[in-house]
Amino acid sequence: MSVLSGKHILLGVTGGIAAYKAAFLVREFIKKGAEVKVVMTEAAKEFVTPLTLSTLSKNQVYSSFTNEEDDNAQWNNHVDLALWADLFVVAPATANTLSKMSNGTSDNLLLACYLSAKCPVYYAPAMDLDMYQHPSTIKSFEKLDSFGNIKIEAAYGELASGLIGKGRMAEPEAIAIFIENDILEKLPLKGKRILITAGPTYEAIDPVRFIGNHSSGKMGFAIAKAAASLGAQVTLISGPSHQKLDHNNVEVLRVTSAAEMYQASHRFFDSCDIAILSAAVADYRPVTVAAQKIKKKDGEMTIKLEKTLDILASLGKIKEHQFLVGFALETENELENAKIKIKKKNLDLIVLNSLNDKGAGFATDTNKVTLIDADNKAYPFSVKPKEDVAHDILEHIIKKRYV
Ligand code: CTP
Q1: Active site residue: 59, 77, 96, 213, which one?
Q2: pLDDT, tens only, 129-150
Q3: What is the phi/psi pair of residue 325, to 5°?
Q4: pTM for the model
Q5: Architecture of the CATH domain 8-186
Q6: Which of 47, 53, 308, 348 is deepest in the core (most CB within 10 A)?
Q7: How far is the CA of 260 from the centre of ligand 1 (A)?
Protein backbone atom coordinates (compact mmCIF):
# COMPACT_ATOMS: atom_id res chain seq x y z
CA MET A 1 0.00 0.00 0.00
CA SER A 2 1.30 3.44 -0.89
CA VAL A 3 1.85 6.09 1.78
CA LEU A 4 -0.24 8.29 -0.46
CA SER A 5 -3.26 6.05 0.08
CA GLY A 6 -6.06 8.04 1.70
CA LYS A 7 -4.11 11.28 1.46
CA HIS A 8 -5.82 14.46 0.25
CA ILE A 9 -3.64 15.93 -2.47
CA LEU A 10 -4.26 19.45 -3.76
CA LEU A 11 -2.59 19.68 -7.13
CA GLY A 12 -1.74 23.19 -8.34
CA VAL A 13 -1.34 23.40 -12.11
CA THR A 14 0.27 26.48 -13.65
CA GLY A 15 0.60 27.64 -17.24
CA GLY A 16 3.46 25.85 -18.94
CA ILE A 17 3.52 23.25 -21.69
CA ALA A 18 4.12 20.55 -19.07
CA ALA A 19 0.60 21.26 -17.78
CA TYR A 20 -0.65 18.52 -20.11
CA LYS A 21 1.28 16.07 -17.92
CA ALA A 22 -0.87 17.11 -14.95
CA ALA A 23 -3.48 14.68 -16.31
CA PHE A 24 -1.03 11.79 -15.92
CA LEU A 25 -0.01 13.06 -12.49
CA VAL A 26 -3.63 13.06 -11.30
CA ARG A 27 -3.87 9.44 -12.47
CA GLU A 28 -0.66 8.48 -10.65
CA PHE A 29 -1.98 9.92 -7.40
CA ILE A 30 -5.39 8.28 -7.82
CA LYS A 31 -3.75 4.92 -8.64
CA LYS A 32 -1.90 5.19 -5.34
CA GLY A 33 -5.16 5.65 -3.46
CA ALA A 34 -5.05 9.42 -2.90
CA GLU A 35 -7.99 11.80 -3.28
CA VAL A 36 -7.10 14.64 -5.62
CA LYS A 37 -8.47 18.13 -6.07
CA VAL A 38 -7.02 20.44 -8.69
CA VAL A 39 -6.56 24.18 -8.54
CA MET A 40 -5.25 25.74 -11.76
CA THR A 41 -4.29 29.17 -13.03
CA GLU A 42 -6.08 30.78 -15.99
CA ALA A 43 -2.93 30.32 -18.08
CA ALA A 44 -2.85 26.59 -17.32
CA LYS A 45 -6.25 26.22 -19.03
CA GLU A 46 -4.53 27.01 -22.34
CA PHE A 47 -2.61 23.76 -22.03
CA VAL A 48 -5.01 21.31 -20.37
CA THR A 49 -8.75 21.60 -19.90
CA PRO A 50 -10.44 21.69 -16.51
CA LEU A 51 -12.80 19.01 -17.88
CA THR A 52 -9.90 16.58 -18.36
CA LEU A 53 -8.64 17.17 -14.84
CA SER A 54 -12.06 17.06 -13.19
CA THR A 55 -12.90 13.82 -15.04
CA LEU A 56 -9.67 12.19 -13.91
CA SER A 57 -9.77 13.52 -10.36
CA LYS A 58 -13.54 12.95 -10.01
CA ASN A 59 -13.68 16.34 -8.35
CA GLN A 60 -14.53 19.87 -9.35
CA VAL A 61 -11.54 21.83 -10.64
CA TYR A 62 -10.97 25.25 -9.08
CA SER A 63 -9.46 28.22 -10.84
CA SER A 64 -11.11 31.40 -9.62
CA PHE A 65 -12.45 32.76 -6.38
CA THR A 66 -16.01 32.35 -7.67
CA ASN A 67 -17.73 29.98 -10.10
CA GLU A 68 -18.50 32.66 -12.71
CA GLU A 69 -20.46 30.38 -15.06
CA ASP A 70 -22.78 29.46 -12.26
CA ASP A 71 -25.85 31.73 -11.85
CA ASN A 72 -25.72 31.13 -8.13
CA ALA A 73 -22.05 32.00 -8.12
CA GLN A 74 -20.32 30.39 -5.17
CA TRP A 75 -17.26 31.53 -3.31
CA ASN A 76 -14.40 29.03 -3.68
CA ASN A 77 -12.87 29.19 -0.29
CA HIS A 78 -9.08 28.97 -0.64
CA VAL A 79 -8.68 28.43 3.10
CA ASP A 80 -10.99 25.38 3.08
CA LEU A 81 -9.20 23.95 0.05
CA ALA A 82 -5.79 24.50 1.60
CA LEU A 83 -6.79 23.03 4.94
CA TRP A 84 -8.41 20.05 3.20
CA ALA A 85 -5.02 19.19 1.72
CA ASP A 86 -2.56 16.79 3.38
CA LEU A 87 -0.13 17.68 0.59
CA PHE A 88 -0.01 20.60 -1.82
CA VAL A 89 1.83 19.78 -5.04
CA VAL A 90 2.48 22.50 -7.60
CA ALA A 91 3.26 20.78 -10.89
CA PRO A 92 4.19 22.16 -13.26
CA ALA A 93 5.49 25.18 -11.39
CA THR A 94 6.42 27.99 -13.77
CA ALA A 95 9.08 30.60 -13.03
CA ASN A 96 6.28 33.17 -12.72
CA THR A 97 4.33 31.19 -10.09
CA LEU A 98 7.50 30.26 -8.19
CA SER A 99 8.47 33.92 -8.02
CA LYS A 100 5.01 34.85 -6.74
CA MET A 101 5.06 32.01 -4.20
CA SER A 102 8.41 33.17 -2.89
CA ASN A 103 7.21 36.78 -2.63
CA GLY A 104 3.82 36.17 -1.07
CA THR A 105 1.86 37.44 -4.05
CA SER A 106 -1.74 36.28 -3.97
CA ASP A 107 -3.34 37.32 -7.25
CA ASN A 108 -5.06 34.02 -8.08
CA LEU A 109 -6.76 31.16 -6.27
CA LEU A 110 -3.75 28.83 -6.54
CA LEU A 111 -1.49 31.37 -4.81
CA ALA A 112 -4.10 32.11 -2.15
CA CYS A 113 -4.28 28.34 -1.47
CA TYR A 114 -0.48 28.23 -1.27
CA LEU A 115 -0.38 31.01 1.31
CA SER A 116 -3.14 29.35 3.34
CA ALA A 117 -1.71 25.82 3.25
CA LYS A 118 -0.33 24.35 6.46
CA CYS A 119 0.61 21.02 4.91
CA PRO A 120 3.90 20.08 3.19
CA VAL A 121 4.31 21.81 -0.18
CA TYR A 122 6.10 20.16 -3.10
CA TYR A 123 6.80 21.88 -6.39
CA ALA A 124 8.06 20.55 -9.72
CA PRO A 125 9.59 23.40 -11.75
CA ALA A 126 9.14 23.42 -15.52
CA MET A 127 10.74 26.06 -17.70
CA ASP A 128 13.36 26.69 -20.33
CA LEU A 129 16.99 26.01 -19.39
CA ASP A 130 18.06 29.67 -19.19
CA MET A 131 15.05 30.60 -17.08
CA TYR A 132 15.90 27.66 -14.79
CA GLN A 133 19.40 29.04 -14.24
CA HIS A 134 18.48 32.70 -13.98
CA PRO A 135 19.59 34.24 -10.68
CA SER A 136 16.06 35.39 -9.92
CA THR A 137 14.71 31.82 -10.36
CA ILE A 138 17.53 30.52 -8.16
CA LYS A 139 16.54 33.16 -5.56
CA SER A 140 12.96 31.83 -5.71
CA PHE A 141 14.21 28.29 -5.13
CA GLU A 142 16.31 29.44 -2.17
CA LYS A 143 13.43 31.33 -0.61
CA LEU A 144 11.00 28.47 -1.07
CA ASP A 145 13.59 26.15 0.41
CA SER A 146 13.83 28.44 3.45
CA PHE A 147 10.02 28.19 3.80
CA GLY A 148 10.38 24.40 3.99
CA ASN A 149 8.86 23.80 0.54
CA ILE A 150 10.28 20.78 -1.24
CA LYS A 151 11.64 21.03 -4.77
CA ILE A 152 11.29 18.15 -7.19
CA GLU A 153 14.26 18.78 -9.41
CA ALA A 154 13.58 19.33 -13.11
CA ALA A 155 14.96 16.81 -15.58
CA TYR A 156 17.50 17.23 -18.37
CA GLY A 157 16.29 16.76 -21.93
CA GLU A 158 14.66 18.36 -24.93
CA LEU A 159 12.63 21.41 -24.01
CA ALA A 160 9.57 22.93 -25.70
CA SER A 161 11.85 25.61 -27.20
CA GLY A 162 13.82 22.90 -29.02
CA LEU A 163 16.83 23.58 -26.81
CA ILE A 164 18.35 20.79 -24.80
CA GLY A 165 19.09 21.27 -21.13
CA LYS A 166 17.70 21.17 -17.61
CA GLY A 167 14.17 22.44 -17.13
CA ARG A 168 11.76 19.68 -18.15
CA MET A 169 9.26 18.90 -15.44
CA ALA A 170 10.03 15.57 -13.77
CA GLU A 171 7.85 12.80 -15.19
CA PRO A 172 4.54 12.26 -13.33
CA GLU A 173 5.58 8.78 -12.16
CA ALA A 174 8.90 10.16 -10.85
CA ILE A 175 7.05 12.98 -9.03
CA ALA A 176 4.73 10.51 -7.28
CA ILE A 177 7.65 8.26 -6.30
CA PHE A 178 9.68 11.26 -5.10
CA ILE A 179 6.83 12.34 -2.81
CA GLU A 180 6.28 8.80 -1.51
CA ASN A 181 9.96 8.41 -0.66
CA ASP A 182 10.14 11.84 0.94
CA ILE A 183 7.18 11.01 3.20
CA LEU A 184 8.62 7.59 4.08
CA GLU A 185 11.99 9.14 5.00
CA LYS A 186 10.34 11.58 7.38
CA LEU A 187 7.96 9.20 9.18
CA PRO A 188 8.42 9.62 12.95
CA LEU A 189 8.89 5.90 13.64
CA LYS A 190 11.12 5.24 10.63
CA GLY A 191 13.81 2.68 11.56
CA LYS A 192 12.15 1.81 14.88
CA ARG A 193 11.25 -1.77 15.80
CA ILE A 194 8.02 -2.27 17.69
CA LEU A 195 6.80 -5.39 19.41
CA ILE A 196 3.04 -5.61 19.97
CA THR A 197 0.96 -8.33 21.60
CA ALA A 198 -2.74 -8.60 20.84
CA GLY A 199 -5.85 -10.68 21.36
CA PRO A 200 -6.66 -13.29 23.98
CA THR A 201 -4.78 -16.45 24.82
CA TYR A 202 -6.41 -19.87 24.98
CA GLU A 203 -5.31 -22.25 27.72
CA ALA A 204 -6.10 -25.82 26.81
CA ILE A 205 -8.14 -28.05 29.12
CA ASP A 206 -8.20 -30.98 26.71
CA PRO A 207 -7.84 -31.28 22.90
CA VAL A 208 -11.19 -29.53 22.30
CA ARG A 209 -11.73 -27.18 25.26
CA PHE A 210 -9.92 -24.16 26.57
CA ILE A 211 -10.09 -21.25 29.00
CA GLY A 212 -10.14 -17.94 27.10
CA ASN A 213 -11.64 -14.47 27.10
CA HIS A 214 -13.61 -12.16 24.82
CA SER A 215 -10.69 -10.04 23.61
CA SER A 216 -11.06 -9.46 19.83
CA GLY A 217 -7.50 -8.24 19.21
CA LYS A 218 -8.86 -5.08 17.53
CA MET A 219 -6.90 -2.67 19.71
CA GLY A 220 -3.55 -4.41 19.20
CA PHE A 221 -4.07 -4.77 15.47
CA ALA A 222 -5.04 -1.10 15.23
CA ILE A 223 -1.81 -0.14 17.05
CA ALA A 224 0.23 -2.38 14.72
CA LYS A 225 -1.34 -0.82 11.64
CA ALA A 226 -0.88 2.72 12.94
CA ALA A 227 2.76 2.04 13.93
CA ALA A 228 3.50 0.64 10.47
CA SER A 229 1.90 3.66 8.83
CA LEU A 230 4.24 5.83 10.93
CA GLY A 231 7.23 3.95 9.52
CA ALA A 232 7.91 1.35 12.22
CA GLN A 233 8.93 -2.25 11.59
CA VAL A 234 6.33 -4.16 13.58
CA THR A 235 6.27 -7.65 15.04
CA LEU A 236 2.70 -8.40 16.05
CA ILE A 237 2.26 -11.45 18.28
CA SER A 238 -1.40 -12.31 18.32
CA GLY A 239 -3.41 -14.83 20.24
CA PRO A 240 -6.45 -16.41 18.52
CA SER A 241 -8.19 -13.55 16.72
CA HIS A 242 -10.14 -13.03 13.49
CA GLN A 243 -8.29 -9.78 12.82
CA LYS A 244 -6.07 -9.65 9.76
CA LEU A 245 -3.31 -7.28 8.79
CA ASP A 246 -1.46 -7.26 5.53
CA HIS A 247 1.26 -4.61 5.53
CA ASN A 248 4.84 -4.78 4.28
CA ASN A 249 6.12 -3.46 7.62
CA VAL A 250 4.20 -5.90 9.81
CA GLU A 251 5.13 -9.47 10.61
CA VAL A 252 2.21 -11.27 12.25
CA LEU A 253 3.00 -14.25 14.48
CA ARG A 254 0.02 -16.30 15.58
CA VAL A 255 0.20 -18.04 18.94
CA THR A 256 -2.39 -19.76 21.10
CA SER A 257 -1.35 -19.92 24.74
CA ALA A 258 0.22 -17.52 27.24
CA ALA A 259 3.34 -19.72 27.27
CA GLU A 260 3.71 -19.40 23.49
CA MET A 261 3.14 -15.65 23.65
CA TYR A 262 5.74 -15.41 26.42
CA GLN A 263 8.34 -17.25 24.32
CA ALA A 264 7.65 -15.25 21.16
CA SER A 265 7.73 -11.91 23.05
CA HIS A 266 11.09 -12.73 24.63
CA ARG A 267 12.49 -13.73 21.26
CA PHE A 268 11.83 -10.24 19.83
CA PHE A 269 12.15 -7.99 22.89
CA ASP A 270 15.91 -7.64 22.78
CA SER A 271 15.92 -6.05 19.33
CA CYS A 272 12.87 -3.81 19.76
CA ASP A 273 12.78 -0.11 20.64
CA ILE A 274 9.21 -0.06 21.88
CA ALA A 275 7.05 -2.90 23.23
CA ILE A 276 3.30 -2.45 23.59
CA LEU A 277 1.56 -5.33 25.34
CA SER A 278 -2.13 -5.03 24.66
CA ALA A 279 -2.97 -8.75 24.76
CA ALA A 280 -5.53 -9.99 27.26
CA VAL A 281 -3.33 -12.81 28.47
CA ALA A 282 -5.00 -15.51 30.57
CA ASP A 283 -3.79 -15.18 34.15
CA TYR A 284 -4.38 -18.88 34.90
CA ARG A 285 -4.17 -22.15 33.00
CA PRO A 286 -5.08 -25.75 33.84
CA VAL A 287 -2.28 -27.50 35.72
CA THR A 288 -2.63 -30.53 33.49
CA VAL A 289 -3.98 -30.75 29.96
CA ALA A 290 -5.90 -33.97 29.33
CA ALA A 291 -4.49 -35.90 26.39
CA GLN A 292 -7.98 -37.09 25.39
CA LYS A 293 -11.34 -35.33 25.42
CA ILE A 294 -12.68 -35.37 28.97
CA LYS A 295 -15.90 -37.43 29.17
CA LYS A 296 -18.74 -36.09 31.26
CA LYS A 297 -19.45 -37.89 34.48
CA ASP A 298 -22.03 -37.57 37.23
CA GLY A 299 -21.52 -34.84 39.80
CA GLU A 300 -19.32 -31.79 39.81
CA MET A 301 -16.03 -31.29 38.10
CA THR A 302 -13.08 -29.20 39.22
CA ILE A 303 -10.18 -27.95 37.14
CA LYS A 304 -7.06 -27.05 39.06
CA LEU A 305 -5.44 -23.87 37.72
CA GLU A 306 -1.95 -22.46 38.02
CA LYS A 307 -0.70 -18.97 37.24
CA THR A 308 0.65 -18.21 33.78
CA LEU A 309 3.88 -16.24 33.52
CA ASP A 310 3.31 -12.48 33.42
CA ILE A 311 4.90 -11.51 30.10
CA LEU A 312 4.78 -7.77 30.76
CA ALA A 313 6.36 -8.03 34.21
CA SER A 314 9.08 -10.35 32.88
CA LEU A 315 9.99 -7.84 30.15
CA GLY A 316 9.97 -5.03 32.73
CA LYS A 317 12.63 -6.95 34.66
CA ILE A 318 15.05 -7.24 31.72
CA LYS A 319 14.24 -3.89 30.09
CA GLU A 320 17.25 -1.79 29.01
CA HIS A 321 16.73 0.75 26.23
CA GLN A 322 13.18 -0.35 25.42
CA PHE A 323 10.10 1.82 26.03
CA LEU A 324 7.67 -0.59 27.66
CA VAL A 325 3.91 -0.04 27.52
CA GLY A 326 1.29 -2.10 29.34
CA PHE A 327 -2.49 -2.12 29.33
CA ALA A 328 -4.72 -2.23 32.36
CA LEU A 329 -8.37 -3.11 32.38
CA GLU A 330 -9.83 -2.08 35.70
CA THR A 331 -13.29 -2.03 37.24
CA GLU A 332 -12.53 -0.12 40.45
CA ASN A 333 -9.91 2.28 41.85
CA GLU A 334 -8.75 2.54 38.24
CA LEU A 335 -6.07 5.22 38.52
CA GLU A 336 -4.56 3.90 41.75
CA ASN A 337 -4.41 0.32 40.46
CA ALA A 338 -2.90 1.41 37.14
CA LYS A 339 -0.23 3.45 38.91
CA ILE A 340 0.65 0.48 41.10
CA LYS A 341 1.05 -1.64 37.94
CA ILE A 342 3.45 0.90 36.41
CA LYS A 343 5.79 0.50 39.39
CA LYS A 344 5.31 -3.23 39.85
CA LYS A 345 5.97 -4.07 36.22
CA ASN A 346 8.58 -1.33 35.61
CA LEU A 347 6.65 0.35 32.77
CA ASP A 348 7.19 3.62 30.92
CA LEU A 349 3.51 4.02 30.16
CA ILE A 350 0.24 2.32 30.93
CA VAL A 351 -2.95 2.50 28.88
CA LEU A 352 -5.88 2.35 31.26
CA ASN A 353 -9.29 1.12 30.10
CA SER A 354 -12.06 1.36 32.59
CA LEU A 355 -14.89 -1.09 32.17
CA ASN A 356 -17.09 1.56 33.81
CA ASP A 357 -16.73 3.75 30.71
CA LYS A 358 -19.30 3.45 27.94
CA GLY A 359 -17.68 2.62 24.60
CA ALA A 360 -14.57 1.08 26.20
CA GLY A 361 -13.52 -2.53 26.39
CA PHE A 362 -13.16 -5.78 24.53
CA ALA A 363 -15.42 -6.41 21.56
CA THR A 364 -16.27 -2.78 20.74
CA ASP A 365 -14.91 -0.70 17.84
CA THR A 366 -14.30 2.21 20.18
CA ASN A 367 -12.26 2.69 23.28
CA LYS A 368 -11.81 5.24 26.00
CA VAL A 369 -8.39 5.34 27.55
CA THR A 370 -6.29 7.27 30.01
CA LEU A 371 -2.55 7.26 29.41
CA ILE A 372 -0.42 7.32 32.54
CA ASP A 373 3.31 8.03 32.45
CA ALA A 374 5.95 6.54 34.72
CA ASP A 375 5.85 9.81 36.71
CA ASN A 376 2.11 9.20 37.30
CA LYS A 377 0.89 12.05 35.12
CA ALA A 378 -2.47 11.04 33.63
CA TYR A 379 -3.85 12.04 30.20
CA PRO A 380 -7.53 11.17 29.78
CA PHE A 381 -8.97 10.85 26.24
CA SER A 382 -12.56 10.78 25.00
CA VAL A 383 -14.34 7.78 23.43
CA LYS A 384 -12.86 7.23 19.96
CA PRO A 385 -12.59 4.57 17.27
CA LYS A 386 -9.78 2.15 18.15
CA GLU A 387 -7.79 3.37 15.10
CA ASP A 388 -7.72 6.90 16.58
CA VAL A 389 -6.86 5.59 20.05
CA ALA A 390 -3.94 3.73 18.44
CA HIS A 391 -2.65 7.01 16.98
CA ASP A 392 -3.08 8.82 20.33
CA ILE A 393 -1.00 6.16 22.07
CA LEU A 394 1.75 6.25 19.44
CA GLU A 395 1.86 10.05 19.30
CA HIS A 396 2.25 10.11 23.07
CA ILE A 397 5.12 7.62 22.88
CA ILE A 398 6.79 9.58 20.06
CA LYS A 399 6.57 12.79 22.10
CA LYS A 400 7.94 11.09 25.21
CA ARG A 401 10.73 9.25 23.51
CA TYR A 402 11.72 10.93 20.29
CA VAL A 403 10.81 14.62 20.37
N1 CTP B 1 -0.08 -9.29 30.88
C2 CTP B 1 0.93 -10.11 30.42
N3 CTP B 1 1.01 -11.40 30.81
C4 CTP B 1 0.11 -11.91 31.66
C5 CTP B 1 -0.94 -11.09 32.14
C6 CTP B 1 -1.00 -9.77 31.73
O7 CTP B 1 1.76 -9.65 29.63
N8 CTP B 1 0.21 -13.17 32.03
C9 CTP B 1 -0.11 -7.90 30.45
C10 CTP B 1 -1.22 -7.54 29.49
O11 CTP B 1 -0.86 -7.70 28.13
C12 CTP B 1 -1.46 -6.09 29.81
C13 CTP B 1 -1.23 -6.05 31.30
O14 CTP B 1 -0.35 -7.12 31.58
O15 CTP B 1 -0.53 -5.23 29.21
C16 CTP B 1 -2.56 -6.27 31.92
O17 CTP B 1 -2.46 -6.51 33.18
P18 CTP B 1 -3.86 -6.88 33.92
O19 CTP B 1 -4.36 -8.20 33.43
O20 CTP B 1 -4.77 -5.72 33.89
O21 CTP B 1 -3.41 -6.92 35.28
P22 CTP B 1 -2.72 -8.05 36.03
O23 CTP B 1 -1.31 -7.63 36.17
O24 CTP B 1 -2.97 -9.35 35.35
O25 CTP B 1 -3.44 -7.93 37.39
P26 CTP B 1 -5.00 -8.08 37.72
O27 CTP B 1 -5.55 -9.11 36.78
O28 CTP B 1 -5.00 -8.47 39.10
O29 CTP B 1 -5.60 -6.72 37.49
Answers
A1: 213
A2: 999 999 999 999 999 999 999 9
A3: -120, 130
A4: 0.84
A5: 3-Layer(aba) Sandwich (3.40)
A6: 53
A7: 16
